[in-house]
Amino acid sequence: MYLFIGTAEDCDKKGALEIVNQINNKPDTILGLATGSTPVGMYQNLIKLYRDKKVSFSQVKTYNLDEYVGIPREHVCSYYYFMQENLFSHIDIPAENVSLPDGNAPDLEKECSDYEERIANSGGIDLQVLGIGHNGHIGFNEPNTPFESVTHLVDLTQSTIKANSRFFESEDQVPRQALSMGIKTIMQAKKILLFVKGADKADIIHKALKGPVTPEVPASVLQLHPNLHVYVDKAAAAKLK
Ligand code: F6R
Known about the structure:
Layout: E1 2-6, H1 8-25, E2 30-33, H2 40-51, E3 61-64, E4 66-68, H3 79-86, E5 98-99, H4 108-121, E6 127-130, E7 152-155, H5 158-164, E8 177-180, H6 183-187, E9 191-196, H7 202-210, E10 228-233
Parallel strand pairs: 1-10, 2-3, 2-6, 3-5, 6-9, 9-10
Antiparallel strand pairs: 4-8, 7-8
The structure holds fructose -6-phosphate (F6R).
């Protein structure tokens, strides 16, 4: 495991540069992407590097980790909308190259198996961006999700609904379900970049990286990944030193 500890800005910068290097070495890179607060600054750095002509996304394909069930794509809280706002509309990635699970598909089970198949058929994810939830979730894989899980329909836990309610008008409006890549889907990525920020993540990142590998802490599975790069800001790294 490669572990970088620095300011949040340095994590964003270095992480973005690592992604740009990946794309410049393999222009048709398959990226796995995350939403949430954590990667926003890193995405801003990617946009800047694109504007400075250090990278082109014209051959890149992306697969997002997850999407809510039952809110329209145009809804400001959909992950589709988030990705357009925070990355896709600012770079030269062709619209047909970006994929998120479709939380409005008529048959959600079929959508999950199709999504998994599309990832595999594209050659698999070269580099997956991850954040971590306070309960150790990665994607929407909540505690006790089997390590063998592939893309699936998830009932969100109360703690995740509460954490995500900050983006909605009220907790009642947070969808109760989501589609998420599984833990096996994530672990099949050739390289994983995990970003962790803030004092409120200090406990969970310590557990995830230094504690036992257990489905109770989904992110602990990352200890078994052969090519894990972790970018932790100083506040979140308080217990790692
Ligand atoms: C987002 C995702 C989630 C977040 C996690 C941390 O696509 O899959 O696992 O990475 O909930 O969220 P933030 O970054 O908002 O603390």
